[in-house]
Design goal:
Its EC number is 1.3.1.22. By secondary structure, the chain is mainly alpha-helical. The protein has seven helices and two strands; from the N terminus they run αβααβαααα. The chain has a two-stranded antiparallel ribbon with strand order 1-2. The mean pLDDT is about 90.
């Protein structure tokens, strides 16, 4: 398969515009899932574990299918794709989805999320396998090393923060509690901070427009959610730590 550069550019720009649209559209209210989910009939929701599994899986499967579909791919691009993007979505599909204790997902949220993961999985996979060019010194370059450091640091923060949130409540408990430990001592959205750092690290390691577009989309999509979580905690708990910020320690 040869590189479809025009398609890559259009999809990358589209992802950035979608992130900006979400940022503006949900300025006053958050996407309806989790604690912000409006009451709806059971027929319109999907169990949380099944929903996360189905919506995240395309972002893992599609890049793998692209690898198998052709033998002429960028070796460095393949290593980056497997070692970053696919690692993340393997964890989200086969680990996080099976452990989550979240509320049932609205079908109207799950389907668009699955579509986005499919589109983004194709974009990242196609670019790294068929369009990206890395010279022999890329492995020793500062962008590669700093990018991977940021990626795996962010992923570690994200996984650890999810662990803390998952163990705040006992099974079948529906009350909310103040998260503590890890970066939750500094921000209300530690899990979101970790994922944002992760994808900006991926953008640095690959030094590509598609990766940057995904990082910006992530910031626009879950950055505001961290702010709303922070406001939710402040309104619900009078003893919520005053020094704790929403997303960026000591700043915001």
């Amino acid at each position: 398969m040869h590189c479809h550069q025009d398609l890559v550019s259009c999809l990358s720009c589209g992802i950035i515009l979608a992130g900006l649209w979400h940022l503006v559209y949900h300025k006053k209210s958050q996407c309806s899932y989790g604690r912000y989910m409006a009451l709806s009939p059971p027929a319109r929701t999907v169990p949380a574990r099944l929903a996360w599994f189905l919506q995240e899986m395309p972002a893992f499967i599609i890049p793998l299918l692209l690898m198998l579909a052709t033998h002429k791919t960028s070796i460095m691009g393949k290593h980056l794709l497997l070692g970053t993007f696919c690692v993340h979505y393997f964890q989200r599909t086969f680990v996080y989805s099976l452990l989550t204790r979240g509320k049932p997902f609205p079908l109207g949220v799950m389907v668009p999320a699955g579509f986005f993961c499919s589109l983004n999985g194709f974009l990242q996979g196609h670019y790294l396998l068929h369009c990206a060019w890395f010279d022999d010194e890329w492995l020793t370059g500062y962008r590669y090393k700093i990018g991977l450091l940021l990626f795996y640091t962010g992923m570690g923060i994200n996984i650890h923060s999810d662990f803390i949130l998952r163990n705040l409540r006992k099974p079948k408990e529906v009350i909310y509690k103040i998260p503590t430990g890890g970066l939750f001592e500094y921000v209300s959205g530690a899990n979101y901070l970790g994922e944002i750092v992760e994808w900006f690290g991926y953008a640095v390691a690959t030094w590509s427009f598609p990766a940057l577009s995904f990082a910006l989309f992530t910031l626009c999509f879950i950055g505001p959610r961290a702010y709303y979580h922070h406001r939710f905690y402040q309104e619900k708990f009078k003893d919520y730590p005053k020094f704790r910020k929403a997303l960026i320690p000591f700043i915001f």
